[in-house]
């Protein structure tokens, strides 16, 4: 800590990060041990975060991330989209297919940025705001696959006809971006994805991840 920073705010943000990294919540004692502070401090931090709906406590007393974080998260989409656009434009023009950035939204995959190629006679109409289950389509499947891979490992996922008849997709997950779970991909009218597309999508996903770090 330096003279210009707030110790209380730092601890509150650390609480949110700890809670975001667990699916089952944490008790006051667990948070106290992880933060290296006494339980009274943790109680005060949780009470303040609860007032802003950033934290909630279940009937068993375990603290979890609150719905207020979702409201803050919605404002992140425009920033993420802006950072991703250069890589998406390059990908769309290079492949000649619609490129997209997709983020996890609950149990769905949500397209937050879409770029269409400028030189093709036709391409798949794919719009920002398009939502589909994570287990359908290359964008969602790439995200699910990344959850099973070692940290830092990137690979591409291919699908055909899962979201639109006659359309094929390729996508690669964003890797190493704290607080953002998503993928970069392309969708095209084709029976199969050309061989060079998968590696190119992986490169684009890395470019977007670098822009978001």
TrEMBL record:
Keyword annotations for this protein, in alphabetical order, are: DNA-binding, Transcription, Transcription regulation
InterPro entries associated with the record: ArsR-like_HTH, GAF-like_dom_sf, HTH_MetabolicPath_Reg, Tscrpt_reg_IclR_C, Tscrpt_reg_IclR_N, WH-like_DNA-bd_sf, WH_DNA-bd_sf
- A Pfam family matched by this chain, by name? IclR_C
DNA-binding among the record's keywords? yes
IclR-ED domain residues are 68-213
Origin: domain of life: Bacteria
- Start and end residues of each HTH iclR-type domain: 6-67
CDD domains given in the database record: HTH_ARSR
Stated name of the protein: IclR family transcriptional regulator
């Amino acid at each position: 800590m330096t003279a210009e920073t707030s110790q209380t705010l730092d601890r509150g943000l650390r609480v949110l990060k700890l809670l975001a990294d667990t699916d089952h919540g944490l008790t006051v004692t667990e948070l106290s041990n992880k933060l290296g502070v006494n339980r009274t401090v943790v109680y005060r931090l949780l009470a303040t975060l609860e007032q802003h709906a950033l934290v909630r406590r279940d009937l068993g007393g375990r603290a979890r991330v609150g719905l207020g974080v979702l409201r803050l998260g919605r404002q992140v989409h425009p920033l993420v989209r802006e950072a991703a656009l250069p890589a998406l434009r390059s990908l769309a023009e290079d492949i000649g297919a619609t490129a997209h950035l997709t983020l996890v939204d609950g149990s769905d995959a949500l397209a937050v940025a879409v770029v269409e190629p400028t030189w093709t006679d036709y391409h798949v109409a794919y719009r920002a705001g398009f939502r589909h289950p994570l287990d359908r389509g290359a964008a969602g499947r790439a995200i699910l696959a990344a959850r099973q891979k070692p940290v830092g490992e990137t690979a591409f996922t291919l699908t055909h006809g899962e979201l639109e008849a006659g359309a094929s997709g390729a996508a690669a997950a964003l890797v190493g971006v704290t607080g953002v779970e998503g993928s970069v991909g392309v969708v095209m009218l084709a029976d199969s994805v050309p061989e060079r597309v998968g590696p190119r999508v992986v490169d684009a996903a890395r470019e977007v991840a670098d822009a978001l770090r």
